[in-house]
Structure formats: structure tokens, C-alpha cells
Amino acid sequence: MSRVVRLADVAVPLEPLPATDVVEGAPSAGSVALATIGEVEVGVWRMTAGVATDVEVDEAFVVLSGSARIRFADGEAIDVAAGDLVTLDAGERTEWTVHESLTKVYVA
Question: Which of 37, 54, 65, 98 has the greatest CB tally within 10 Å of its CB?
Fold first, then answer.
């Protein structure tokens, strides 16, 4: 892989989320791993509009485009949009309400 990846040019194949994870709508999601540094993966992830649940891994990400609200099992909710840096902890249960397709670059 090249030393430079133009994130805007990364094609992310999308698949419908499992019905057991979907709360509302018909969201699709997908990711592409771009690099591995030691045991850490760097990649791009995308989810289309809708509401879905997830169980997180240790991760930091920067939102490249789109917007969403992430609600945590403890009731905390955060709104994220382009330019935001977010950290997640392994095992956290979340609900993602994606308003417009969300694309993020992650380190996990």
C-alpha cells in the first residue's frame, strides 16, 4: 500500500446490518482496513442513515463526514459531526442514530 491514502477516494463496500442490530430504518455499514501498526488497525468505516446498536472495541476515531448521535447504555449521548475526535471503550453498548451517512477514520 502507498504511504499516502486519499481518504475521500477510499471505496467502502456496504452491507445491510443484521436485523438484530437494527432499531429503525435499513442502515448499511462497512469498513476497509488501511494499515496496521503493531497490533493497531487504521481504517475507514461508513454507516448509512438509520438507527442500530453495537458493542464497541477500544477505538479512537475522527468523523470525516456526516452526523450522528451516539447513545451509551448509561444514558450519556453525544452528537458527532465532521472534525470530531471520539474515543470508545471495549464492551460499551451503544445505539447509533445516523442522520446522514457517517464516515470515520478509526484507530483500533
Answer: 98
User: How is residue 83 written as a grid cell?
Assistant: 472534525
The domain spans of the chain are 12-107
Residue 8 burial (C-beta neighbours within 10 Å; 0-12, 13-18, 19+): exposed
- Coil, strand or helix: which one is 8? helix
User: Hey, what's the cell of 34?
Assistant: 488501511
pLDDT band of residue 3 (cuts 50, 70, 90) is confident
**pLDDT for 14:** 98
CATH 2.60.120.10 is held by the domain 12-107:
yes
Say if residues 66 and 102 touch (Cβ distance below 8 Å): yes
Q: What are the cell numbers at 25?
A: 430504518
For the cut 80, the answer to whether the pLDDT of residue 59 exceeds it is yes
